[in-house]
Amino acid sequence: MKIKLSKNKEAILILLGLISVYFSLLPGLGETQALILFSIGLLTIVNHVLDFSWEFKVGVKRFCIFIFLFFFIILSFSSVVFSSGGASVFIKYLIAGVIALACFRYNPSDHKNSYVPLYFLLGILFLGVLQSFFGAKLFLPIYSVFMPRAILSSDLAERGVTILAPEQSYMILIVTLVFLTSLVSMRVNNTNSKFPTLIAFLVFFVLVKIIGSALGFIMLVLFFLSYIFPKVVMKMNFFATFISLVVSFAIFRYELYPERFNFVIELVNVTSLSYFLSLVSTLEPSGSTRLILGVAAWVEGIEKVFAITPGVIENEWASILKAQGYYFLENHEVLGRQYINEIPSTPQTLFYSLLGDYGIVPSVIFLVLIFRMLTYSSALFKDILFYFILSYIFIVLFYQSGLTSPFLFLAVSLLVHYSKFLKQQNRD
Asked: Within a domain: residue 250?
């Protein structure tokens, strides 16, 4: 039996899976539930591993029913049986593997209509504008059921809208990847008009503004400079430009808050990792949690080199950092209570989870596999869009993306498929 979807439907389902990744339909499985992408990966396994002799096409409605029933029966059972401890984390690694299979197997930019990803971006903008005018109460029925934390994040006056995610920093990852997919889709499908690209950029600009993400702002300025002055940016080195923008934005932002800007000055005199983390914790309580949990993963991973201990970094991160003498975390605005009471907390990226749970050797192997796929994209080294996607990959690999989040795999897949297109174009 082979369950088959058309290429166009596959690409649309990938995009639907991306924008719905934070819809928590099943209890006990956390905020990130890549329901659609997991099911696509599962169908791939059914088609290519089991390889039954007959096949039939399945409609989108039946496919959605299959998704929900499979997740409800199998994963709900797993979350009850393995409600805590290493077994539940191990299941998450298996889920991440199936999601990766879906992302690498199918191309999110492969559409008959090259504007499909742009339509998705416009749809997100429509929802964002509605939320900007009417507030979180407009989406209260959805948020209260599928993502309760979004209500709190949206009500914070100094931050923007969350739209389809629990918080603003998560939403900007979705928006940026859909934006990049729209640029690749238009390029691959030979849409030479600059007008659709301009529309995509303007939509991304408005979304960054209403979401209110520092990361989105940095990427936005980088895109703008690269398209207006591509030769200058390439000569300066793309990553040097990226770092310059980060520093410039930090200075601009914290000049508005002199008491915070003093901490930026103090960073120049940092003499230890502990002192650096204490400064960053005061400067950016939310953003620093990703660095702190990453440091815990490094400490644990380097010490044991290789092990099979799924869940150890999630459950023991506080005791690991206490052993390092990081007692300043007792006063941390976000992690303080968890640190004192040694409450479990999950690292923010798949890489840090691997590092803390399995050690340095498996983590290095994982990085080698990822970068090996990126070297396949050597045809893109003179293409500015390559560096946009590569910057995004570094962010989700080392800074922010959950264990079962699809962002890393989708971005790498996008880059590889784009490289295939350029290599074919060069041959022709």
From this structure: no
> Residue 30: left if φ>0, alpha if ψ -120 to 50, beta else—which one?
left
Q: Are 172 and 218 in contact (CB under 8 A)?
A: no
* Domain tally, the chain: 2
Alpha carbon distances (Å) from 19 to 80, 98, 135, 197, 283: 27, 18, 20, 21, 31
Domain around 24: 2-105
What is the helix (H) or strand (E) element at residue 27, kind and residue range? none
pLDDT-wise least confident of 47-56, 193-202, 314-323: 47-56
For residue 121, the model assigns a pLDDT of: 94
- Residue 60 forms part of a structural domain: yes
Q: Answer yes or no: is 377 within a domain.
A: yes
Is residue 321 assigned to a domain? Answer: yes
Pick 254 or 150 by higher pLDDT.
Answer: 150
Q: In this structure, is the dihedral angle defined by the CA atoms of residues 311, 314, 316 and 317, taken in order, positive or negative?
A: positive
Q: Which of the four pLDDT bands, split at 50, 70 and 90, describes residue 206?
A: very high
Domain boundary among 47, 71, 105: 105
pLDDT at 45: 74
Distance from the Cα of residue 171 to its chain's centroid = 9
Q: For 50-97, write each residue's pLDDT tens digit.
A: 554 334 444 545 555 555 555 555 555 545 444 455 667 777 888 888
Q: Which residues contact 309 (CB under 8 A, 6 or more apart)?
A: 86, 357, 358
Nearest partner of 11 among 47, 48, 36, 42, judged by Cα: 36
Site of tokens 């976000």: 334
Q: Kindly state the greatest CA–CA separation across the chain.
A: 69
The one-letter amino acid at 365: I
Task: Using the predicted structure, report yes or no on whether residue 362 has a pLDDT greater than 90.
Answer: no
Sign of CA dihedral 226, 231, 237, 240: negative
- On the CB side of 135, how many CA atoms lie within 13 Å of its CA? 6
Last residue within a domain, chosen from 58, 81, 105: 105
Identify the bridge partners of residue 2 per DSSP, sorted by sequence position: 55
Q: Encoding tokens for residue 275?
A: 């002192």
pLDDT at 179: 94
The residue written with tokens 């990847």 in the block is: 177
Closest CA to 168 of 155, 181, 179: 155
Contact 380, 392 (CB under 8 A): no
Describe the chain by its helix, strand, coil percentages, rounded to 5. 75, 0, 25
Query: What is the pLDDT at residue 57?
Result: 46
pLDDT value, residue 52: 43
Residue 332: closest CA among 299, 267, 269, 288? 288
pTM comes to 0.84
